Amino acid sequence: xxxxxxxxxxxxxxxxxxxxxxxxxxxxxxxxxxxxxxxxxxxxxxxxxxxxxxxxxxxxxxxxxxxxxxxxxxxxxxxxxxxxxxxxxxxxxxxxxxxxxxxxxxxxxxxxxxxxxxxxxxxxxxxxxxxxxxxxxxxxxxxxxxxxxxxxxxxxxxxxxxxxxxxxxxxxxxxxxxxxxxxxxxxxxxxxxxxxxxxxxxxxxxxxxxxxxxxxxxxxxxxxxxxxxxxxxxxxxxxxxxxxxxxxxxxxxxxxxxxxxxxxxxxxxxxxxxxxxxx
Length: 279
Fold this sequence. Notes:
Elements: E1 2-6, H1 12-24, E2 29-33, H2 38-45, E3 48-49, H3 65-72, H4 78-91, H5 101-114, H6 118-139, H7 148-163, H8 173-184, H9 192-199, H10 203-213, H11 219-235, H12 242-248, H13 254-265, H14 269-278
Parallel strand pairs: 1-2, 1-3
Helix pairs in contact: 1-3, 1-6, 3-4, 4-5, 4-6
């Protein structure tokens, strides 16, 4: 089977061919052509167009084409669903959806900048998504600092910080302003880039300094923690269903909400709410 899309791929148009070859059509041929030739070439070559407007395999609402492939072909592999969230966040600039989104975007953009041949770029991208899939399937709970040597280095580092003169310094003014912004817009699709504009500071500086003033958490981790805390508050009233709570706390869907909630509390939202009602 032939599959055709726009040339110069970065995220969706690399991730979808990886999904096609690994889960849908292993012998499928991926064709890249200029945008204005996609539909004509699709008819000429009897190829299935994807990731262009007006075709079946494309974006729907907040979801990207990768999401549609997963749903259309009934792919239930949990690791693929983890990748779907990462691909969606990277492809739509919603890097708060998963910690890996910004990294996938950065590597993909770098590959596209360095490699001009689309088929060579696809080959490199498939290697990248194979690695990401292996991580999602086997290594999500493994951290680099689980090794004894890294723990030793971290302990020395934190000990030095505690002893160093001036280590405890007054947070800059933007920290409190940022906390208020996050609290006021916790149910929105917040991005560090947009927040940095409001604060009038560099996004790279904000990204680098964020964890220092926000509980040693990355931006994505902190946002998820705040959303779960808000969800717990909403659970204490019977006014909202869990689906409504997921929406009110900024999660893209209830399954994403359930997964993140369980990561933070060790329980599914329904079990947690039942315990709250017993108290």
